[in-house]
From TrEMBL, chain A:
<keyword id="KW-0274">FAD</keyword>
<dbReference type="GO" id="GO:0033717">
    <property type="term" value="F:gluconate 2-dehydrogenase (acceptor) activity"/>
</dbReference>
<keyword id="KW-0560">Oxidoreductase</keyword>
<dbReference type="GO" id="GO:0050660">
    <property type="term" value="F:flavin adenine dinucleotide binding"/>
</dbReference>
<feature type="domain" description="Glucose-methanol-choline oxidoreductase N-terminal">
    <location>
        <begin position="220"/>
        <end position="329"/>
    </location>
</feature>
<comment type="similarity">
    <text>Belongs to the GMC oxidoreductase family.</text>
</comment>
<keyword id="KW-0285">Flavoprotein</keyword>
<dbReference type="Pfam" id="PF05199">
    <property type="entry name" value="GMC_oxred_C"/>
</dbReference>
<feature type="domain" description="Glucose-methanol-choline oxidoreductase C-terminal">
    <location>
        <begin position="428"/>
        <end position="552"/>
    </location>
</feature>
TrEMBL record, chain B:
<dbReference type="InterPro" id="IPR027056">
    <property type="entry name" value="Gluconate_2DH_su3"/>
</dbReference>
<dbReference type="Pfam" id="PF13618">
    <property type="entry name" value="Gluconate_2-dh3"/>
</dbReference>
<keyword id="KW-0560">Oxidoreductase</keyword>
<dbReference type="GO" id="GO:0033717">
    <property type="term" value="F:gluconate 2-dehydrogenase (acceptor) activity"/>
</dbReference>
<protein>
    <submittedName>
        <fullName>Gluconate 2-dehydrogenase subunit 3</fullName>
        <ecNumber>1.1.99.3</ecNumber>
    </submittedName>
</protein>
<dbReference type="InterPro" id="IPR006311">
    <property type="entry name" value="TAT_signal"/>
</dbReference>
<dbReference type="InterPro" id="IPR019546">
    <property type="entry name" value="TAT_signal_bac_arc"/>
</dbReference>
């Protein structure tokens, strides 16, 4: 029998970027907010000994414990879904800060084209540019409407960047900090891109170029280029993370608390409202009911979708009939790229997660697709994130992967290779979706989320196009051997690709084709908000966190409005 | 050069991050650094010397935590040495302590798949679905050592440790190409595990009992744990830095 606790104004399920932002904004507005976090408390002092590739990048110290919960996966509906027993393709976070602790910090705003992708694509290329199997959809909000929230997130995070990219949306103000250092490796890419007629710019970075105090009074330190960002926490407090910004901001108000080891297993609903959540204390196994006036799902997009599914809130998407919205429009990204082998030794082991330069000449609709068999595109970058020796063993194509020749070549090339890679957009397809697994369960007896996903023609065509572009840049950079990536076939959940999973709880202008409105308020329960990359209708050619941050600020504004007036916000 | 670099003092560390100006008061970093000994960088004090002696003692007592007989361990040692052999650049897997590293890992979370989903039912699945074996890594390695031996017997009528290097490569290649029958796991998967574990042992921080003397890092030009590259990151030339273990931060 679950014990019922004292009611709070707002409860968030998970305390990463979106949970932290909702917590800070609502607590500042005077609401009593509780964050339920299934992982541990952690802070900068836990990362003093973090320069350990094996523990963090190989053994995934900061990541979710899959023995407790994972997902199941199949490429198509015809396949038997099986558990993802090991982490691979993407890395699910856990603990205070969530994936916002172990991210690299590349912080983009999605393009104006992204938010109106269906109408803009149809206007320019007609209704049949992609087959009907692609579920393109406008997001129910425009870039201009979201701009103030992007601006707010960037100021909270102290993003270091330069507004020189001719292709992205108009900004109301410049970046709060100047870009990071333009290193010799970045200059190689800059020179090559310029000579090919492209427009390189510094990656907008949450590794800060200088010490900075954000509008909430939180200080973020200056990046030291130590080369340990992605999969690691920052021992300097120089990579903006929820636990050094929005979480302390929320705590300072006296209106905020985080309860750890609290694993939410159900959202409780009565009529057209939710009443709270049920959670299990991981340390004791006890069940609790936490009542709240407003419930906000702020865990990773997969878990947000799963909680709605197990709580029977909303209608599950059915690929057979096209009916239902929950679990629909799951998207990912593709990673076309080229490795170049050079003669000279380079400082490839130094770096920072967002230290890089990018071109957007082949992203979004920044180039003409009239004669191309795909839409959208990819950002193309060279980054200097700090190569580490266990994971970085580059050898040219004719060298074996073990033995004497391998050892020599991988050691030789560790400091003599560079990569130019794209982050390719991913379009929703009717056969790519999430649902509940009928067989496998997590450690609490709750069904696992089931993912049905494969690359589509659009992905394969875009991948080939961008791979060629990355090879051209690499050639121009003067590599002695240019090794372009192989074409993609079927999606494989084993090798790491990207933790940019999106969709499943999509936003929109009406309840027929979306789960939440453009304040991320659930159509079927006015006091339930669902926040994160799950709200994306497709995935763009960028890292998602900037857009997640903007949406979280938008949702926080909606929750505060709702707490005063009630009802639907749209 | 190397000596200059490892001398980044606590004061420099604080200065470059802006912490010295008090901007991070209330954060966790200062508390964590109070006990930080600048001499840990290697300027050679009595304390440091003592630490070194203790370390030497500790490495002398390495031993087997998982494998139960010497032949298994010898098979493992010879196999990983073929994957990552000694050459003119420096030590191979054995010289780097890789066999001990793997043995020790198999005795812990890695060997028992503690952080992985191991609930049934188990089905073979497609390759895109990844590891679906009921076996733990410890069980796979145990079986793998016996399989290497029996494959050597089959091909050369000798135990694995008795065949020559070229013959060992032939046996390992058979595993890599999935030509050997194993129970509950493919030989190809076992080979991938073995190869990956070898690289982990060669290049993990020496606190895990491999990468002895940081020679794996030294060969590769990787400096291990360094607090900052802010003064070197803009250098046009390759910067050689004497490696440091993360244990230099411990207190």
């Amino acid at each position: 029998m679950a014990k019922t606790l004292e009611k709070v104004d707002v409860v968030t399920v998970g305390v990463g970027w979106s949970g932290g932002i909702i917590g800070a904004e609502c607590a500042k507005a005077g609401m009593k907010v509780l964050g339920l976090e299934r992982g541990n408390e952690r802070s900068t002092e836990d990362f003093l000994m973090v320069h350990d590739e094996f523990r963090y990048a190989i053994r995934y110290d900061l990541m979710q414990d899959l023995s407790k919960e994972t997902i199941t996966f199949r490429n198509t509906r015809k396949m038997r879904a099986l558990p993802m027993r090991h982490m691979g393709s993407f890395l699910l976070g856990e603990g205070l800060g969530g994936a916002g602790t172990h991210w690299n910090g590349m912080t983009y705003r999605f393009l104006p084209y992204d938010f109106q992708i269906k109408s803009m694509t149809e206007k320019k290329y007609g209704k049949d540019k992609l087959s009907k199997d692609y579920l393109l959809k406008d997001w129910g909000i425009t870039y201009d409407e979201l701009e103030p929230y992007f601006d707010k997130f960037e100021k909270t995070a102290g993003i270091s960047g330069e507004d020189t990219n001719p292709f992205w949306g108009k900004r109301s103000s410049d970046y709060p900090n100047p870009p990071m250092k333009k290193t010799p490796l970045l200059k190689k890419f800059e020179k090559a891109s310029n000579s090919l007629g492209y427009d390189p710019f510094m990656v907008p970075s949450a590794n800060l170029s200088q010490s900075y105090e954000n509008p909430d009074g939180e200080t973020i330190a200056a990046c030291q280029y130590c080369g340990f960002c992605e999969r690691f926490g920052c021992e300097y407090g120089a990579k903006t993370s929820p636990e050094i910004t929005v979480v302390p901001t929320a705590r300072k108000t006296g209106n905020y608390d985080v309860r750890f080891h609290a694993n939410v297993i159900e959202v409780l609903k009565q009529g057209n409202k939710v009443t709270g959540v049920k959670y299990i204390d991981r340390q004791t196994g006890e069940e609790f009911i936490q009542p709240a006036d407003v419930v906000v799902l702020t865990s990773y997009m997969m878990n947000n979708a799963k909680l709605l599914m197990v709580s029977n809130i909303g209608e599950q998407y059915n690929p057979e009939t096209g009916k239902g919205t929950l679990g629909k429009n799951y998207c990912y990204q593709i990673e076309p790229g080229t490795t170049g082998f050079f003669d000279e030794q380079m400082n490839t082991f130094m770096g920072a997660g967002s230290l890089g330069m990018t071109i957007d000449n082949f992203n979004g609709d920044n180039f003409d697709h009239s004669n191309l068999d795909f839409i959208h595109g990819a950002s193309i970058s060279l980054t200097q994130t700090g190569n580490r020796p266990i994971l970085t063993n580059p050898v040219p194509p004719d060298v074996p992967v073990w033995g004497a020749e391998f050892k020599k070549s991988s050691i030789e090339n560790f400091t003599r290779t560079l990569s130019v890679f794209g982050q390719g957009a991913s379009m929703p397809h009717k056969e790519n979706f999430m649902s509940l697994d009928p067989k496998y369960k997590d450690v609490y007896g709750v069904p696992l989320l089931q993912l049905t996903y494969n690359f589509t023609e659009q992905d394969r065509n875009l991948h080939k196009f961008i791979t060629d572009k990355t090879a051209e840049v690499m050639k121009e950079m003067g590599a002695k051997t240019v090794m372009a990536g192989n074409p993609i076939t079927d999606y494989d959940i084993v090798p790491y690709q990207s933790t940019h999973n999106t969709g499943g709880t999509i936003m929109g202008a009406n309840p027929e084709d979306s789960v939440v409105n453009n304040y991320l308020q659930h159509w079927d329960a006015e006091n339930l908000f669902v926040v994160g990359a799950g709200n994306f209708n497709h995935n763009s050619g960028y890292n998602p966190t900037g857009t997640v941050g903007a949406l979280a600020y938008r949702a926080a504004e909606g929750i505060i409005k709702y707490s005063k007036a009630g009802g639907s916000l749209v | 050069m190397a000596d200059d670099k490892k001398g980044l003092s606590r004061r420099d560390f604080l200065k470059t991050t802006g912490i010295a100006t008090g901007t991070l008061v209330g954060g966790g970093l200062i508390g964590g650094l109070v006990g930080y000994n600048a001499n840990k960088g290697g300027t050679g004090t009595l304390d440091k010397k003592k630490g070194n002696d203790e370390h030497a003692q500790a490495t002398n007592t390495r031993g087997l935590m998982f494998f139960t007989n010497q032949n298994e361990f010898n098979v493992l040692s010879q196999a990983v040495e073929r994957i990552f052999p000694k050459d003119d650049l420096g030590p191979g897997a054995i010289g780097l302590g890789v066999p001990f590293f793997i043995d020790n890992q198999l005795a812990g979370n890695y060997g028992s798949n503690a952080k992985e989903y191991m609930q049934g039912p188990f089905f073979a699945g497609e390759s895109t679905q990844g590891y679906q074996s009921k076996l733990t890594r410890a069980e796979i390695f145990k079986q793998g050592m016996a399989s290497l031996d029996s494959e050597a017997q089959k091909r050369f009528d000798k135990r694995f440790v008795e065949i020559d290097g070229g013959q060992m490569d032939e046996v390992l290649t058979a595993f890599q190409k999935n030509e050997v029958n194993m129970i509950g796991v493919s030989s190809e998967f076992f080979f991938k595990l073995l190869r990956t574990a070898t690289l982990e042992g060669a290049y993990a921080d020496p606190i895990y009992n491999g990468n002895i003397n940081m020679d794996g890092w030294r060969m590769k030009g990787f400096p291990g744990h360094q607090m900052s590259y802010i003064n070197e990151i803009e250098s046009e030339k390759f910067v050689k830095i004497e490696p440091k273990s993360v244990s230099s931060m411990e207190h």
